[in-house]
Design goal:
Layout lengths: L1 H32 L6 H24 L1 H15 L2 H17 L2 H13 L6 H25 L3 H18 L2 H13 L5 H15 L5 H5 L2 H23 L14 H33 L7 H40 L2 H17 L2 H13 L6 H25 L3 H18 L5 H10 L5 H15 L5 H5 L2 H22 L9
């Protein structure tokens, strides 16, 4: 009964995360378009399946992977075993990213839009290796006391430099790839490693040193994917896009379901393998609740399968439909308004943002207010998606727009209070949720398809990148204002 009630709570929370999005869509359909979408029950069914998938996935993680993974991180920290901690950091970063639902969704869209030239599996591998390597650097940063702002400046300077020479078809996707790596699977594990290290090392600050790993995991995949794009568009050849799925033949439907579950098992297996290897081989310890872990693992599999299937039924068609309807209205102001409202709504419902904000307030009481941070970040995401939508509407090279945004962020790194920099960049990484990513990606591709003179691959990606960097700017500006006007600080409501 306890697990059933916890699953029910997760399901209610997942449905609650979708309510703001549904509210915005309904308002536009009723008051702006004055029409009912084709197959509304299919869209609602897809959204419901997404909610069930997220609930199963989260509850399965709580039963299996998260407890074992966090315990491993704490064991390595207590033992002070650098020889085990660094390989564990790489392995867990790689495994969590390769199984990240948002990464899977974006990679499949990239392969589809590029007509197979970008390989979804290879793209996910590049992102996962990037996250694994940067976690090693992040762990060393906490251990050695390196300043996070120096790493961020050097890393983003490299990323922006590559933007000049990378093919335009890959730039938007590269910056989006950084935004989707830190999400439902990776954030808790990555945050546990950073905060655990900062808590266990004398002379380290939880706020200054404990945060920042998520920020690095956003930055480095941008570099890795741009390098992959340079290779693909220089030496690679066009491949085959994924074949369209058929739901007519019951036998084909069953075969697709079996292959889909097998693919999900392949995606989750790396996390399980990493956790069990370090549990049994490195630490030589048994699992405390093996049956619970096995049940949780199967819930993760079913949750991921339902999530991916729900995306194809609900969120992707919904984003494309809304983009087409907004273009048909011929009112750019309505398109921008929809983008801003969707950005704010989905961010306010983001559980990872709430968790990080509360942890930051606990680490720095009186200097960080969790509710205020949540509002500031939501406004930043709204402005970022609005800015990215404006770029698609008016045209112009993506790299000029994104470089301007990152230039502002890097300038603020020198001006903002040092305690807020790791937190600000971490918050930028957790704003792109498993609900936000597919909807925003579909919106961008839909707009790029509908607006004359735009390219799906060059212009369709990039909204997630703006949704990641604008909150960083907003949080640093907020911290600077609070430092200048301390009377504006309020206690948590």
């Amino acid at each position: 009964m306890e697990h059933l009630s916890r699953f029910a709570a997760e399901l209610l929370k997942s449905l609650g995360n979708l309510v703001p999005i549904v509210a915005v869509v309904v308002i536009f359909q009723v008051f702006v378009f004055r029409a009912v979408p084709d197959n509304p029950l299919a869209l609602l069914g897809g959204l419901a399946i997404v909610a069930v998938g997220i609930a199963l996935f989260l509850h399965g993680l709580d039963l299996s992977i998260f407890p074992v993974g966090k315990n491993l991180a704490n064991q390595f920290v207590r033992r002070g075993s650098l020889g085990l901690l660094l390989p564990f950091g790489f392995a867990i970063g790689f495994a969590a990213s390769i199984a990240e639902p948002a990464v899977i969704a974006v990679a499949e869209q990239a392969q589809l839009v590029s007509a197979g030239r970008i390989n979804a599996v290879v793209l996910r591998f590049v992102i996962a290796v990037s996250v694994g390597l940067v976690l090693v650097v992040g762990v060393l940063r906490v251990l050695r006391g390196w300043a996070i702002h120096k790493l961020l400046i050097a890393g983003y300077a490299a990323a922006l430099g590559l933007t000049f020479i990378a093919p335009p078809e890959i730039v938007g996707l590269a910056y989006d790839s950084g935004g989707v790596t830190t999400n439902i699977v990776s954030v808790p594990l990555i945050a546990a490693i950073g905060l655990g290290l900062a808590n266990s090392l004398r002379g380290r600050s939880v706020l200054t040193d404990g945060f920042g790993l998520v920020a690095l995991c956003v930055m480095v995949p941008t570099i890795g994917v741009q390098l992959y794009g340079i290779w693909v568009y220089t030496f690679g050849a066009a491949g085959a896009a994924p074949p369209p799925e058929s739901g007519e033949d019951p036998g084909a439907w069953v075969a697709n379901m079996i292959f889909g579950l097998a693919g999900i098992f392949r995606d989750v297996l790396p996390i399980v393998a990493v956790v069990l290897f370090f549990q049994f081989v490195a630490l030589r310890r048994r699992l405390v609740h093996p049956l619970r872990v096995v049940v949780g693992f199967f819930m993760v599999l079913l949750g991921l399968y339902a999530f991916v299937g729900g995306l194809k039924l609900g969120l992707f068609p919904l984003g494309t439909l809304m983009a087409q309807q907004l273009i048909e209205q011929g009112a750019p102001a309505l398109i921008l308004l929809f983008a801003v409202l969707i950005g704010f709504a989905v961010t306010m419902a983001e559980p990872a943002l709430l968790a990080i904000g509360e942890q930051a307030e606990e680490a720095a009481p009186g200097r960080v207010n969790a509710f205020a941070v949540r509002m500031i970040v939501a406004c930043g995401v709204a402005l970022g998606i609005g800015f990215g939508t404006y770029r698609i509407l008016v045209g112009g090279p993506f790299h000029y727009f994104i470089m301007a945004a990152y230039a502002v962020a890097l300038l603020l790194v020198f001006l903002a209070p040092k305690y807020v920099i790791p937190l600000a960049f971490d918050l930028g990484g957790v704003t792109t949720s498993e609900v936000t990513v597919p909807l925003v990606t579909a919106l961008g591709i839909g707009l790029a398809t509908a607006v004359e003179g735009r390219n799906e691959l060059i212009d369709g990606f990039g909204l997630i990148a703006y949704a990641s960097i604008f909150p960083v700017i907003a949080v640093m500006v907020y911290a600077m204002v609070m430092e200048q006007f301390p009377r504006l600080r309020k206690e948590k409501p």
